Amino acid sequence: MKPSRRLESCALGAILAGLGAVAPAQTNTYPDSPYPRVNPAAWYEVDPAWPQRPPGIGWGGISGLALDAQENVWIYTRTNPIVQVYAADGRYLKGWPSPGTNAVAHGLRIDRDGHVWLVDVGRHTVTKHAADTGRVLLTIGTEGEPGCDATHFFKPTDVAFAVNGDLYVSDGYGNARVAQFGKDGTFIREWGGLGGKPGQFSIPHSIVCDARGRLYVADRNNGRIQVFDTRGRLLEVWADVMVPWTLWLSPDGDVWACGSSPMTWGFDPKYPTAPLGCPPKDQMVVRFDSSGRVRQLWTFPKAADGEEAPGTLNWLHNAVPDSKGNLYCSDIIGCRVQKFLRKTGPAAAP
How many CA atoms lie within 13 A of 243 on its CB side? Predict the structure, then answer.
């Protein structure tokens, strides 16, 4: 007998001896296993009591989600009130009414000065608001007029902020570009174009900018994250990891992305014009460091339409961590936000 065969035989004999010579079917419960039953990776458990949404406050598809400096949870939803704010303990704090019948919520961001920015794919605008009253302080784009120039968007998706105050808009569903503006809304430049080559986009769906001036763009249909400098020069492409929907930048510079694992194009009669990954086959959150290395990955059960339960997700659109590592996740089809509590091991498995 060759040494490799002898080793295989010994290993098999040891396994069979430990299992009483008969492997139990469809079980991973081995009471006499020599392996320590610990959970070495962080995991998440849903808080089913969060939030305490008052009667009469509805939720539509929730596409925008952000935390302010007090870690209040701001959501942007496709109903009225269109903006809703909840405390970290789940209390409802306030809401803003919808600006009109053509409004379609998409991206919500809070800048370094605490202003709230709303990206509206129905009105083709990006608006800056006072956080206390909701008063509009600046509008970029021409309301109700789609286009692709210095004063028009076509279904924009997200906005990011550079350290110097410049704004970057992923524009988005109708166009395939990133547009740069000064802090006063003055157009500076654009780049991109529809396609799959490096530097091109197919639904630039989300954008964030770190303190070093690196712009991360979720290039959704192309299943990749593209990294640019502040003048639009392509630096890196992170591909073959996921179909990224929305990005979030943590204070330490890590890039959080939510979406699904890589998928091929298909057809679902319920969603005949949907982009890649709709409906998604799974739901996942990935934490990258600034070099593109995956540092953490967690998947959540995918719910069927109309069968959502606590802890499942259905078209995950946002995943935002708080300072304790808990995750707030919002659904488009599931029409809800859930809070997932971060747990860490080693902890004995039940």
Answer: 24
Distance (Å, rounded) from C-alpha 47 to C-alpha 122?
A: 33
Other C-beta atoms closer than 10 Å to the C-beta of 222 total 22
Q: H or E segment at 5?
A: helix 3-18
- Side by side, the strands of the sheet bearing 43-46 are 43-46, 336-343, 327-331, 316-321
Taking the CB of residue 290, how many other CB atoms lie within 10 A of it? 17
CB atoms within 10 A of CB 85: 18
Query: How far, in Å, are 14, 69, 214, 269 from residue 217 at the CA level?
Result: 51, 24, 10, 29
Amino acid 203 reads I
Strand, helix or coil at 280? Answer: coil
In the block, tokens 């009130």 appear at 81
Distance separating alpha carbons of residues 297 and 208, to the nearest angstrom: 20
The span from the first CA to the last CA of the chain, in angstroms, equals 43
Q: What is the pLDDT of residues 257-294, one digit of tens each?
A: 999 999 999 889 999 999 999 999 999 999 999 999 99
Number of residues written out for the chain: 350
Query: pLDDT by residue (tens digit) across 291-324?
Result: 999 999 999 999 999 999 999 999 999 999 999 9
CA–CA distance, 243 with 203 (Å, rounded to integer): 11
Structure tokens at 316: 């995950």
Could you give the CA distance from residue 177 to residue 170 in angstroms, rounded to a whole number? Answer: 6
Give phi and psi for 194, each to the nearest 5: -75, 130
> Which tokens is 17 given?
């001896």
Q: What is the value of pTM for the model shown? A: 0.89
d(CA 229, CA 240): 22
